[in-house]
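Reminder: ligand-aware prediction takes two inputs, not one.
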Amino acid sequence: MRYDWTINEIEALFELPFNDLMFRAQQAHRANFDANEVQLSTLLSIKTGGCPEDCKYCPQSSRYNTDVESELLMKKDQVLAAAKIAKEKGASRFCIGAAWREPKGRAFELVCDMISEIRDMDMETCATLGMLTAEQAAHLKEVGLDYYNHNLDSDPEYYKEIISTRTYEERLDTLKHVRANGMSICCGGIVGMGESRRHRAGLVAQLARMNPHPESVPINMLVKVEGTPVAEDAQFADTLDNFEFIRTLAVSRITMPGSHVRLSAGRETMSEEMQSLCFLAGANSIFYGEKLLTTGNQDAENDQKLFAKLGLRPMENPVPSSRRMVNA
Ligand code: SAM
Ligand code: DTB
Ligand code: SF4
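Here is what comes back for the chain with iron/sulfur cluster:
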């Protein structure tokens, strides 16, 4: 495993002829995984909207006029009911998301309680709650959280075009606390926000220089939501070519060969052929279920049909039997 990738080297991978890039990605994929298995994660927004941060892509920021209303923290019973449905449909990981800058007080305690119960449901647990202190990370580990999702979103240079209310360093600090407390990291970014190929290579370099690599790497294709700056401002008007998105997945696969690279947001509008090229590029994880946090995703039934056409299988649930409930 390499942790010393330079931006130039990664940019050179981006520039390979497409077929050569796909071949390299398949080689890396097959050396580390069953190339016909895809991990399924289901997302649930447990606290939607009203976020004080100014992430220019985000429909949940209170600063932009989008259709997303601010809601209260969801009740535990509702969350557990959604987790049960996800499990029945075949998800191996359940991820809860909150539109917070950081978790606080009683709400954090309530979320910890939810996590400890999801943990007993024979699924991997994941949460994305914003910035964490070292103490909060320790507490999440204690209640049984397996993964924490916290994205870098872009490379350090382009970051200032997207977010002003939280620094890149603060993101890295949160990731440090997650790692120090023995949880797995889910960390990736968004492409299609008007960044250059060099910026995309810079994002992948940031991820691939982490030692160890993030266990899950979500690559999101920007979902342009009406009312957010990325959908309204001329600076962000360009849309990303599909092949460039596929290349980003392939380069992530080659540089982080042991990680689950996730074909994340943006899948709702992708054709079956586009998605199959994403899998060929080494993506081996998806968000599964009809909703992401606030926007749509492919229906589970569509995914099942596509998997059948391509001969893909959902990855086995990795939760050890020692953690499984006896009467589940
Ligand atoms: N509030 C927490 C935070 O930002 O850390 C957690 C939830 S936040 C919505 C999780 C991630 O979703 C963001 O870091 C971003 O990468 C992704 N995301 C949000 N809106 C998106 C969009 N419109 N298109 C693609 N990805 C998006
Ligand atoms: C990630 O990288 N993508 C997910 C998850 N981690 C939390 C979120 C995508 C959000 C897309 C816009 C929405 O549905 O609000
Ligand atoms: Fe808030 Fe997270 Fe959206 Fe940023 S990405 S506005 S922190 S919910």
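Strands lie at 37-47, 93-98, 124-128, 147-149, 184-186, 189-191, 216-221, 260-263, 285-287, 313-314. Residues 57-58, 60, 97, 99-100, 128, 130, 150-151, 153, 190, 220, 222-223, 225, 265, 293 surround S-adenosylmethionine (ligand 1) (CB under 6 Å). We will return to this case in the review session.
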